[in-house]
Amino acid sequence: MILASSRRSNLSQHIDFPVVLWSGQPSPRNFPANVYPFRANSHFLYFAGLSIPRAAIRLDRGKLELFVDDPAPGSVLWHGPEPTAAQWAEQMGADAYYPLAALAERAEDAATLPVQDWATRQQQMQCLGRSVSPLEGQDLELAKAVVELRLCHDELALSEIRQVVSVSVEAHLTGMKGTAKASTEAQVRSLIESVFIAHEMTPAYSSIVTVHGEILHHDRSAHPLTPGDLLLVDAGAETLGGWASDITRTWPVNGQFSPTQRAIYEVVLAAHDRCIAQVKPGQEYEEIHLEGALAMAEGLVDLGILIGNPETLVEQDAHALFFPHGIGHLLGLDVHDMEDLGDLAGYTQGRKRSDRFGLQFLRLNRPLQPGMVITIEPGFYQVPAILDNPQFRHQYDKLVQWEKLAQFKDVRGIRIEDDVLVTDQGAEILTAQLPTTPDQIEQVMIN
Ligand code: GLY
Ligand code: MN
Ligand code: MN
């Protein structure tokens, strides 16, 4: 836990007031002992280094106090021996520990960040005697300091991210190889998640394993696999310590891309490769997004789907008819790292989200710095809610060759997503072991 302790002392360089962070608690499904899996709040995990339910830490000028109760006397029957408060404190390197009930008198004047679960949120408000959302005053100052620290990852974080990426790559390969024998989305999903489980990891978000890739966050896997369909798989594990990966590949159910699928896939891949080539310190992420948009527009003009000058098409947001989301986001303890803080992490202070059709879902708008891990994830989708929208249809009618587009109806959704570390020199593609080209993917699928 040496590095978690250096995170705590780094925080004390940024702020001079006490901080209390809560881990959260498992939410019951029905009766109190039947709970959803527990996952500690990411800010707590970052500074505590350990996932402990119903705990809080108080940080004050580099000193750490832990607030947690010993296991309840009857608990051993159901859960076996669990660490005592003293043992947790020792593992964490805490300077002192107290029962949770002692927190109220030590929390006065402390800043905090809101947790997600409602029961703990109420405890936070009770303990502090005030609301914790929206962020303001010292809470906002704390949030800015935490963003400063969590934007660029330390060695401990990078080593966990490398582990989780390697397991997630293995999971995708297992899914690709097993698709020939699968008859439903759910069967491929089970192959992928079985690899996570075998490594004592969990999905970092609901896996997307679907032949309806045009539904961007399709989190159900109920469809049969039909030859001729493309399967879009967006799945990534997280480590026990909470560090996430986020990978997407799209492959043909029958192991071979059709000519139309391959043509669009090559357009998305060109956008992916051009964006990754731009990742380096100092590079504005918005420029990378616009490079991806331009590559998509160029490719779609070449295929005869869009009509016009690619630069102008991007200025008109015409690419967003088919690539409506941002090129990616920060990755770390959360798959969309620190988005619990709104755009405080994603956007440099003073920058605001655009409401332009082609920029509204850009989640990151900062110059890149060494140590950041970001995703690059261009995609092409035929989303009925966009393409059949009368307003878009009217606005973009003359820029799309609709009859040409109809020839590509076997492409509902393609996304290619990699996790990229910004290094001092440029970039390292952490997910590089997972093939991206159509030929490589077809090769994996027949093995
Ligand atoms: N898995 C969600 C995303 O790619 O942003
Ligand atoms: Mn992503
Ligand atoms: Mn993803």
TrEMBL record:
One of its GO terms (cellular component) is cytosol. Keywords: Aminopeptidase, Hydrolase, Manganese, Metal-binding, Protease. The keyword Protease applies. It catalyses: Release of any N-terminal amino acid, including proline, that is linked to proline, even from a dipeptide or tripeptide. Its cofactor is Mn(2+). Residues 3-126 form the Aminopeptidase P N-terminal domain. This is Xaa-Pro aminopeptidase. It comes from the Bacteria. One of its GO terms (molecular function) is metalloaminopeptidase activity. The keyword ATP-binding does not apply. InterPro entries: Aminopep_P_N (IPR007865), Creatin/AminoP/Spt16_N (IPR029149), Creatinase/aminopeptidase-like (IPR036005), Pept_M24 (IPR000994), Peptidase_M24B_aminopep-P_CS (IPR001131), X-Pro_dipept-like (IPR052433). GO terms for biological process: proteolysis. It comes from Roseofilum reptotaenium AO1-A. Belongs to the peptidase M24B family. Its EC number is 3.4.11.9.
